[in-house]
Q: What sequence folds into this?
């Protein structure tokens, strides 16, 4: 009688170790995600509107509620600042130059809201709030599109 015996070789050990490590990593990621997600945080975020006509730059004011295009509240205006808008370009020598854009301003709207904490930052009404996020928002007297340039926890 010839019995065949299975031997454990190094390849079997490596495959088994990789499977165990993958399962452990997945379990760890799920536990960390559950622990860090959820809850609310009061945050302030600033949206930059780089080129807005001067007559429209004065339309937003403190205390107004800001809405997304679906009509969901995205926060309350805490501060509004306006400065001269500039165009950045290059001259014939390749040097960067800045030119004023007459009749246009750069506008910064600081908003405060209560947002959900996620492992990747903050979220409100299904929209990710992070530096670099683009928003289409409106107040009762102004529609604007801008980029989030900063997010921080509010000091309320």
A:
């Amino acid at each position: 009688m010839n019995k065949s015996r299975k031997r454990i070789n190094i390849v079997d050990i490596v495959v088994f170790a990789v499977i165990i490590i993958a399962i452990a990593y997945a379990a760890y990621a799920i536990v960390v995600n559950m622990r860090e997600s959820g809850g609310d945080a009061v945050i302030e975020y600033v949206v930059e509107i780089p080129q807005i006509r001067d007559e429209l730059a004065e339309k937003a004011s403190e205390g107004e509620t800001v809405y997304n295009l679906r009509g969901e509240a995205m926060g309350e205006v805490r501060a509004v600042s306006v400065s001269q808008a500039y165009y950045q370009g290059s001259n014939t020598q390749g040097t960067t130059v800045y030119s004023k854009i007459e009749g246009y301003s750069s506008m910064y709207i600081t908003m405060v809201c209560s947002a959900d904490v996620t492992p990747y930052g903050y979220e409100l009404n299904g929209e990710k709030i992070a530096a670099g996020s683009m928003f289409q928002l409106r107040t009762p007297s102004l529609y604007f599109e801008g980029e989030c340039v900063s997010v921080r926890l509010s000091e309320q």
